[in-house]
Amino acid sequence: MDCVPVLDEPLKKVLGGNTAKVMAEHLGLHTVGDLLHHYPRRYAERGELTRLADLPLDEHVTVVAQVADARVHKFNSGRGQRLEVTITDGSGRLQLVFFGKGVHKPRAELLPGSRAMFAGKVSVFNHKRQLAHPEFKLLRADSGSDAVEAFANQLLPLYPACKQMESWQIQQAVDTVLGPAGQEDTVLAGLIDPLPESLREGRGLATLPGALRRIHRPRTKADIADARDRLKWDEAFVLQVALARRRQADATAPAAPRRPVDGGLLDAFDARLPFTLTDGQKRVSAEIFADLATDHPMHRLLQGEVGSGKTMVALRAMLGVVDAGGQAAMLAPTEVLAQQHHRSITEMMGELAEGGMLGGAEQGTKVVLLTGSMGAAARRQALLDLVTGEAGIVIGTHALIEDKVQFHDLGLVVVDEQHRFGVEQRDALRSKGKQPPHLLVMTATPIPRTVAMTVFGDLETSVLDQLPAGRSPIASHVVPAKDKPHFLARTWERVREEVAGGHQAYVVCPRIGDDEDEAKAAKEKSAEDEAEKRPPLAVLDVADKLAAGPLRDLRVEVLHGRMAPEAKDEVMRRFAAGGVDVLVATTVIEVGVNVPNATAMVIMDADRFGVSQLHQLRGRVGRGSAPGLCLLVTEMPEASPARGRLGAVAATLDGFELSRIDLEQRREGDVLGQAQSGVRSSLRVLAVIDDEEVIAAAREEATAIVTADPELTGYPELRTALDALLDKEREEFLDKG
Length: 737
Description:
Pfam families: DEAD (PF00270), Helicase_C (PF00271), RecG_dom3_C (PF19833), tRNA_anti-codon (PF01336). It comes from Streptomyces himastatinicus ATCC 53653. By secondary structure, the protein is an alpha/beta fold. The protein has four domains: 1-46 and 154-190, no CATH class; 51-152, CATH 2.40.50.140; 265-292 and 308-443, Rossmann fold, CATH 3.40.50.300; 474-652, Rossmann fold (3-Layer(aba) Sandwich). Helices cover 40% and strands 18% of the residues. It contains 27 helices and 21 strands. Strands 11-12-10-13-14-9-15 form a seven-stranded parallel beta sheet, sandwiched between helices. Helix 10 (221-252) packs across helix 25, helix 10 (221-252) packs across helix 26 (716-725) and helix 12 packs parallel to helix 13 (310-323). It is globular, with a radius of gyration of 31 Å.
């Protein structure tokens, strides 16, 4: 470690090849720094001294006993070995067991007649209680009760582990890196501390070496709290500096201001609206138009409850950009949704969507659709309309991102349901402008990463929390099909009642049920899966059984992603026109589908869907004047986390509240990276929901530093920490926005 900073030292040089290989492959730990920042997830207390005769099962205990016997057993043709040690304290006997490399030390030290303290979790094997891989400390003849008490009360770190490497092995590796107790500060003295000294002292935070020593080797619970407080600040502050620098770069990036003109397209559209905008729509529109009028790119998240009128707000923004001489593109995740948006927007605009066409309004523009399944002639015309500027608005799917698609002057990109798109896809569309276009991202339920970024203050956020007049509430209920089969029967009766009242219903399933789908499901299904006892979970199966059973005589049709685009569009048209009573579908109807007469939704195997998905699906009903009904069918037991999740969805229609529940369950993903779940989270001790105060304070400190010293020339340690955090992938991610 002479020339290399301690954190950069490869683990294989410190721990040996095999251990380092397992840590790299299964835990993503490659260097000493990676290991030291692999913090314990919790701590166990060894427990008070316990007599062998009184050992409680499944609890951590500490015993003082004498070794009566120790034997090594070979297995696996002599390649494996197991050490079994029998100990006694006069009140009873207990077996200890050690495997693999963990055999060497106890074999050498736990000789018959020796006396020691042993600590571990009591388990049962072959009807006998035992301790597997217990910690132990030999006692000398003069060891007093103080030494025994200190051992018994020590806090034991429990690390995030894996099948190939248990927590106690990770603790051994950390002990190897930190060296003997009392010498940790010598080993950690060369650490680069990202927190400026004035900030650390002003906030009363521990030094970095002190925090790492206390997190891995705490003497008291106060040590753990001090360490976590300091390490949370490291994560929050360095991230906030990265985001503050990005905000500053965004504020100085050039963009063309897009201001609506008096008497233009937007005014003509507003004049023909058959209703009044809600106060929320007016407020959010004002925020967006203020952003569009500036000479740097808008970067705004529009969070609106399902049915709150986000599309209307986005359309008015697009019309304002067209007024200013630019073009607007709306990116939709599916062809069904793109077609739905195109149909509803052209209907709302009327002759204003027929600019340059016979009968079109003078202030009008052309609104074109661009999807992958369009015919060659229609596609050529759409591309021509875009490159010439004839079309002011384009609505499309991923087809908009292709290289052949060129714009005359792209001024605004609207991304609908942003969780369905990757950053690269949004970036590819934004790169088609002469200057960076303004960006408006819409979502009904922010995915965890979006909530995280919102809390971190990286996105300007507008909230539509008011439903337009005439929208109805949605009642949601969990249907425990396995516990109460009659509830499922009642579910289908309710669907019939809605249809009898002149309304329509959706039934949503997780699978399609065609041959390809079945083959995949067969691979995933375990031998114990009692599929025949479950309600059918695939669209094709469910539709057949409903049509022949509880929904016989009703007009039941299917909709799923493998149908031809024309067939999907035709089914949706018939459903929208009232020609279908019950639509059995996959999540292809998750977003944007707007059929006001559909009042009921049954979600089969609802526990297989995420919180955000359930909220999105539920938003397809209650879109008219009649109340909506959403029934969440599940076979999961009442005490399961899945039932708890469904109960939370049924209990609230608040998208932000549901996103917080989702975030608490799934973690925030890699806040600076592209992962959408907690697996690759760059946050180890910082929790976005619980630590909002720390994040807000860190943002304040980071903004002040970046404003005064944008290049961080006066903060070389912080710059180094930032470079380590912003590897090439994350740097590109931030640049793309």
